[in-house]
Amino acid sequence: MHIPLGSPATPAPSRRRFLGLAGAAAGVGLLTACGGSSGPTVNTGQATGKAYTGAYTGPKVSLSFWNGFTGGDGPYMKKLVEQFNAEHHNIKVTMTTMQWADYYKKVPTAVMAGQGPNVGIAHQHWLATLAARRAILPLDDVARELKLAESDFIPAIWQAGLYQDKRYGIPLDVHCLASYWNTDLVKKAGIQDPSSGFESALAKLAAGPARQPFWMPNQWPAHMIFLSLLWQNGGTPFTSDASKAAFDSDAGVTALTWMIDQMKKGYSPKNVALDTQYNAFKTSRNAITWDGIWQINDLRTTAPSLHWSVGFLPTIGHTPAVWADGHNFVLMNQKSDDNKLAASKTFIDWIGQHSAEWAGAGMIPARNSARSGADFKARPQAAVATKLGAFRFLPAVPGIDDVGNQSYVQAVAKAVLGQASPKKALADAARTADQLLASNRQKFGS
Fold first, then answer.
1. Contact predicate 66/330, CB 8 Å
2. pTM of the predicted model, to two decimals?
3. What is the enclosing helix (H) or strand (E) of 327?
4. Which of 229, 246, 273, 276 could form a disulfide with 255 if both were Cys (CB 3.0 to 4.6 A apart)?
5. Is 51 within 8 Å of 109 (Cβ atoms)?
């Protein structure tokens, strides 16, 4: 089925996204650790203030709202903010966007200086780091005041917002890896659904309309593919307490070996550079690619003549599983009067209730109510939101993004490039990860 046009491009050039988050992770060590110096001279308890009654009735206030929605998702959030301002004469929200790399470096520093925003957005896997840096406030009281509970959300994303038994994020969406396929090539190969019997589908495609149907990248999103396959084979990236690496298990070796086998079978060329597999898909040089759902809108605008479809990642291992992350609302840990805090609660609550509109950015709304309407069910990513229990998230551990970037991300690249065997690459990376995890426990005081 040809996906209809209609939405601007989503965030993605994956190169910018990958390098941005990696750069942010590298910069986090420059910030003051929670176990180090005196930290921010601000409150460290719950974000309480005046009781929330469902609407802000105080004097006019101005709120600053920071995020990293610099891609095609930006216009959707901008439109929501403008709509909010139009409906709330006593609240003026000013949105500031910046690259995620800059965002994650700037937020803690700005909060320390008392110049941070009132409201922000954070990826799930960054919540623990920001909380350990005391850059954001616990939101258990806010969640109760807004009458939010796990039953309102995808359970996994609700639980992913916890760090040390406190809630630091109010979930907005989930985004995950997905499988895209060229419907014209799949049809020519006589395949109805390439997600069912995936390897058989690749063999048929290779024997027919697509000699190399499934290009395997060595960089972004290669580590997401690896993690998804790791979970599918019963493994985990880290031990249950996240004190040690576990991605070098038999499940990890099996996952990484499968990735390399795609080249050995001739389904993928070697040395697939960053973004090459995605660009090849847009020009019909391959038939299937695995990438994030944030590419949905990019495909609509940059490849308008391409006929494609998208679905949940095929189960290559024993259990359906897919790498996932999410955007969360956060409140900054700085001095703020009760009126601004109450207005911030109103803003977060309003955007959450309108998150079905945010789905236009290519995301999956975290709220169940936003996914139950006909508008969302008609969107391409609805086909990905069919196995919500299979979404997998990184553990809530400070600095976990940096650990991954310096360990299994590098191991996947080395193995796919043929520079090391899967077993050796993962074993070496696990030792690096263990050292980083130990260092982070000292750095973050937890």
1. no
2. 0.88
3. strand 327-331
4. 229
5. no
pLDDT band of 32, cuts 50, 70, 90 = very low
Q: Among all chains, which residue has been given the structure tokens 């190399």?
A: 212
Q: State CA 297 to chain mean position distance.
A: 16
| pLDDT reported for residue 189 | 96
Per-residue pLDDT of 325-348, as tens digits, reads 999 999 999 887 889 999 999 999
pLDDT tens, position by position, 394-403: 999 999 999 9
Residue showing tokens 């659904």: 193
**Which DSSP state fits 78?**
H
What is the DSSP code string of 377-388? HTSGGGGTTT-G
- What is the rounded CA–CA span in Å between residue 214 and residue 94? 44
The amino acid at 319 = T
Backbone phi and psi for residue 142, each to the nearest 5 degrees, phi listed first: -65, -45
- Per-residue burial over 35-61, b if 16 or more Cβ lie within 10 Å, else e, is eeeebbebeeebbbbeebeeebeeeeb
Q: Could you name the CATH architecture of 177-324+399-444?
A: 3-Layer(aba) Sandwich (3.40)
Alpha carbon distance 26, 101 (integer Å):
9
Predicted local confidence at residue 47, as pLDDT: 55
Task: Tell me, yes or no, if the two domains 26-172+326-392 and 177-324+399-444 fold the same way.
Answer: yes
In this prediction, residue 337 carries a pLDDT of 85
Q: Parse the chain into domains and list their residue ranges.
A: 26-172+326-392, 177-324+399-444
Mean pLDDT of 254-264: 98
Query: How far is Cα 29 from Cα 18, in angstroms, rounded to an integer?
Result: 18
Which CATH number is 26-172+326-392's, of 3.60.40.10, 3.40.190.10, 3.40.50.300, 3.30.460.80?
3.40.190.10
Instruction: Calculate the CA dihedral of residues 427, 431, 437, 441 and round it to 10 degrees.
Output: 150
Mean pLDDT of 38-65: 68
